[in-house]
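Re-run requested by the PI after the first attempt was lost when the workstation crashed. Everything re-entered from the original request form. Ligand of interest: zinc ion.
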Amino acid sequence: MATPAPATFAQLLEHAVNEPGVLSSAYRLFYGYSLGNVLLALSQCMARGIQPGPIATFQRWKELGRFVRRGEKAITPCRPVTVKRTTTADDGTEETHRATWFVYRSFWFVLAQTHGKPLPITAPPSWDATRALAALKVQEVEFASLDGNTLGYAQGRTIAVNPVNPLPHKTRFHELAHVLLGHTAEGEQHDGELTPRNLRECEAESVALLCCAALELPGIEYSRGYIQAWWGKGNPIPEKSAQRILKVADQILRAGREQSAADDQGVA
Ligand SMILES: [Zn+2]
């Protein structure tokens, strides 16, 4: 069977936003890996009709007392890389081309492709906001806005969450994302290109949605509505933003997790 064409991160993100249940089950299974790879591995399992489950390299399965079945083809998560190339024509004019190709990383096998000793059941390690904030060097300060409609805000490397906010965890992810995406630094420095406000809100809320989905916290419906209100329904998220969103959500999830052996297996 032909391996399906790899999806872009923008497509993977869109799928995760529209079907957050898929992301939460994937996170449970693959939390040791980066979110981008989690989504890639899951999409390959689904495309090839393999029961999604924990993934490991051939060698790692061997260490766990399990063996890859004969004839099983590896899952090969890959990552799209966009490069710009400038070529000079005979008459001296320069032309810039953009090309995207896919870099293949490790070769993984899913539990269902192996046999041997039963695998101990493990749950994802718990996530803690205080631990995440400390690791990310972001300070949460007392909410000092007089505007009762404001749910939270971010300034420099500080964030604040309105104490009457019904979904404080979602706003915390959102404000943390503004800091980690560099939006608050942009506001202070006023140099370089500014990310348009609607894209900033779409990026920060997408991070919040991914974190809520992965940790099975409420608020996903509100997040989706917020993203659609700022960015427009069906409007594709730029690939560069999708990659930034996945990277920052991953950073937040990793920073708040208890250190676990599975994290060592993480790639990319
Ligand atoms: Zn915001």
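Saved to the shared folder this time. The mean pLDDT is 83.
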